[in-house]
Design a protein that fits this description.
Number of helices: 13
Distance between the termini: 87 Å
Keywords: Membrane, Transmembrane, Transmembrane helix
InterPro entries: Beta-lactam-related, Beta-lactam/transpept-like, Diverse_Enzym_Activities
Shape: globular
CATH superfamily of the largest domain: DD-peptidase/beta-lactamase superfamily
Order of helices and strands: HHEEEEHHEEEHHHHHHEEHEEHEEEEH
Strand content: 5-15%
CATH architecture of the largest domain: 3-Layer(aba) Sandwich
Protein name: Beta-lactamase-related domain-containing protein
Pfam families: Beta-lactamase
Number of domains: 2
CATH topology of the largest domain: Beta-lactamase
Number of strands: 15
Radius of gyration: 23 Å
């Protein structure tokens, strides 16, 4: 009898521990599930004008996001997410700003924020791309048209790396400054804005470049973060943030609660959240890919130009100058653009951004970025042993298993690219005069489609 009672006590204790852990984990994880789903649904419905059922089937059809319930409120352009009725999170849509999760500030405070956004200039779409949307009827003589179309067909139909549909929405090829191939999935076209996810980091780097050119920022100087003065973090340079070598104690893990998911889905001021994290490594010595570093860069941009100028600054100083008029940068609750993740633009506009870097920061005869900015961008970070990362752009460095071959073995060594979750990509290949844009939901075999596109050019 005594043995039975002891066993029962152990069982009850273990059940209590399991229950406590479950409650603790749910308390941390449920708001992330609710927030991710509400934000994704809101942007898809109110910014992209998509069918909610398609969003549930494609973007939100994975565990644990499927455990959430997402309710659309057309009357105030918002979406509420919850998990079994708990951990409700709301994302609100505002014209010109896309969607924002309500965190830390009240919904009324966020809706009352004023953003002095620039008007989109009148456009002559009959002007030749990239300054308009008119495409050339002729292709270069060294282009194997049939091979290119087969390569695009293959890319559009390619399954995801994990099996199942990849939902590729757009595939676009630019050769020698001209669009030579373009394809869209049903329901999407050249006017559809699509999420860039972490390609937003590369956009942010470009805006930093504009400020460097103006003499307002210096990559080699300490990052201008007020909270870091007179602390061990004042040694972190702007360059360390650009090269993902800040040394901050941060983990980029989206599989559960982490600094990354807490920042994106639980915090109203993402840059301030990052500024408070402790230092784990000596700055510049350890490469650690971090969305948080990019959000610090976004906060630095805001503090450098000032609150009144900031909302319009990225557009007026850079993106509208390169005819990137579809771009929408979504802010966090504090009003700072989520510089790590939340940009929307058409495939053609993402290609325009790639073309800016292909042309060494020059657009229509104007040097928008510092003369050496692209050269510095493609220099591998000293802390990145695989030589895969520069200034918020990825490089074609070493393979994971074999350092004697490139990461993308069938692409040239000079290729660099903006990369986002789910396989959003702008590949820039100067030696082949190529820019390749792919937008979708899940990653595919990028090396395969790059190989096929490159093979369509006969040098």
């Amino acid at each position: 009898m005594k043995l039975y009672k002891n066993i029962l006590r152990v069982i009850l204790f273990l059940l209590a521990v399991a229950l406590a852990y479950g409650i603790w984990y749910a308390w941390r994880a449920f708001p992330i599930i609710s927030g991710y789903g509400a934000k994704s649904m809101a942007s898809a419905v109110f910014l992209q004008h998509r069918n909610p059922e398609d969003v549930l089937k494609e973007e939100l059809n994975f565990f644990p996001i499927t455990k959430g319930t997402y309710t659309i409120h057309p009357e105030d352009s918002s979406v509420t997410g919850s998990v079994w009725g708990f951990a409700k999170r709301k994302a609100i849509y505002r014209t010109g700003l896309g969607c924002t999760l309500v965190n830390d500030l009240s919904e009324a405070e966020i809706r009352n924020q004023h953003f002095n956004l620039p008007a989109i200039p009148a456009q002559n779409r009959d002007t030749a791309w990239p300054y308009g949307d008119k495409l050339s009827d002729s292709l270069p003589p060294n282009m194997d048209t049939k091979a290119l179309q087969l390569a695009i067909d293959s890319a559009m139909q390619m399954p995801s790396k994990k099996g199942g549909p990849a939902y590729t929405r757009a595939f676009l090829v630019v050769y020698d400054g001209k669009i030579v191939g373009e394809r869209y999935a049903p329901g999407f076209n050249k006017n559809t804005v699509q999420i860039g996810w972490s390609m937003t980091k590369s956009l942010t780097s470009a805006v930093i470049g504009v400020l460097v050119k103006a003499g307002r920022l210096n990559p080699n100087a300490p990052a201008p973060v007020p909270e870091w003065q007179h602390t061990d973090k004042e040694k972190i340079r702007l360059k360390d943030l650009l090269q993902q070598s800040s040394g901050l104690d941060y983990t980029e893990n989206f599989g559960g609660p982490s600094e990354a998911t807490n920042m994106l889905f639980k915090r109203g001021n993402m840059g301030a959240f990052m500024a408070e994290l402790p230092l784990k490594y000596e700055p510049g010595t350890v490469f650690s890919y971090s969305s948080g570093n990019a959000n610090l860069l976004g906060r630095i941009i805001r503090q450098t130009v000032g609150d009144s100028i900031y909302p319009a600054f990225p557009y007026k100083a850079l993106f509208h100058k390169i005819n990137m008029y579809s771009l929408v940068l979504e802010p966090d609750a504090s009003g700072t653009y989520v510089s790590s993740s939340y940009s929307y633009a058409t495939a053609r506009d993402f290609a325009r951004f790639g073309l800016l870097y292909y042309n060494n920061g020059v657009w229509n005869g104007e040097q928008l970025l510092p003369v050496n900015w692209v050269k510095e961008t493609v220099q591998p970070a000293a802390a990145n042993k695989q030589q895969r990362y520069g200034y918020q752009f990825w490089l074609n460095g070493q393979d994971d298993k074999d350092p004697t071959i490139r990461w993308f073995p069938d692409a040239p060594a000079d290729m660099f690219f903006a990369d986002g979750y789910g396989g959003q990509n702008i590949f820039i290949i100067p030696s082949k005069k190529l820019i390749v844009v792919r937008l979708g939901v899940r990653t595919v075999d990028e090396n395969k489609y790059l190989k096929e596109v490159i093979a369509a050019i006969k040098n």
